[in-house]
Every structure is written in structure tokens, then in C-alpha cells.
Amino acid sequence: MHRLDRPGRLGGAGTDRHGAAGHARPPPARPDGHRLNSVLRGWCAYFRPGVSNVAFCYLGHYAWMRVTRWIRRKHPGITWKQLRRRYYGGGWWPVTEEAELFNPAKVSTTRYRYRGKLIPAPWPTTA
After folding, report:
1. Nearest to 100 by CA among 36, 45, 57
2. Number of other CB atoms surrounding residue 38 within 10 Å
3. pLDDT digit string, tens, across residues 64-101
4. Is the model's pLDDT at 43 over the cut of 80?
């Protein structure tokens, strides 16, 4: 007897682990837009005081690609024009009635913030 043919093992005689025949892919998981936006905002807030504009642009492109690929996988038989009308509000950035995907490329960075007299002098001031 083969290992995978024993009862209780994954695989077996053409069934998946739930007992259904075939090898259908499960539907893609639904991304949580609010959670994704909060993660992107937090990441940008943390790295904002630095030279990270190129990284923010890349992050925005990467987030757009991943959300777009998820939408395309979710609706395999729909045209790009219909997808843009439904999920992008006619434009190119994902927008729904509930929320809009946060765009990290629009975050401005700050460099070398002037702190003035907040930095204490390393030597005592004597008159």
C-alpha cells in the first residue's frame, strides 16, 4: 500500500483534503483594504524623515501591482475596461465606495530637519 493511499493522509485517490474530487484552486483571498492602507501609512510615517522618495515610489508601484493582480485573478473573464470602471473609478488608481488605496509615492519626505537651539551645546557657556 502506498503512503498517500492510506486513510487520513492528504492526497489519496484523486480527492483533496476535503473529500471533493478534482484540483480546483480555491478562490483568492480578499485583501483587507483598510488594513493594507494602515500598513502602508505606518511604513511611510516611519521612513519619512530620510532619503526614501524612490523607495516610496517603488512601494506605491508594488502595492498597485499586487492589488491589480488580485483583482484580475478574482475576475478572470472580465475586460480591463470593465475592471477599471468597477474598481478604479474610471482612472488608474484603485478606488471603491469605502476607501482608496493609499499611494506612498505622494508622501513627501523631510531631510535634515533644522532643530535650532534644541541641540544642547557640548561645552559650558561662561561669560
Report:
1. 36
2. 12
3. 999 999 999 999 999 999 999 999 888 889 887 778 89
4. yes
- The rounded Cα 24 to chain-centroid distance in angstroms is 26
User: Cα–Cα distance between 68 and 27 in angstroms, integer?
Assistant: 16
| Contact (Cβ atoms closer than 8 angstroms) between residue 115 and residue 105 | no
Rounded CA gap, 56 and 105, in Å? 5
Q: Which cell is 61 given?
A: 508601484
For the entire predicted model, the pTM comes to 0.62
DSSP letters along 7-62, please?
TTSSSTTTB-TTS-BS-PPPPPPPP-HHHHHHHHHHHHHHH-SSS-HHHHHHHHHH
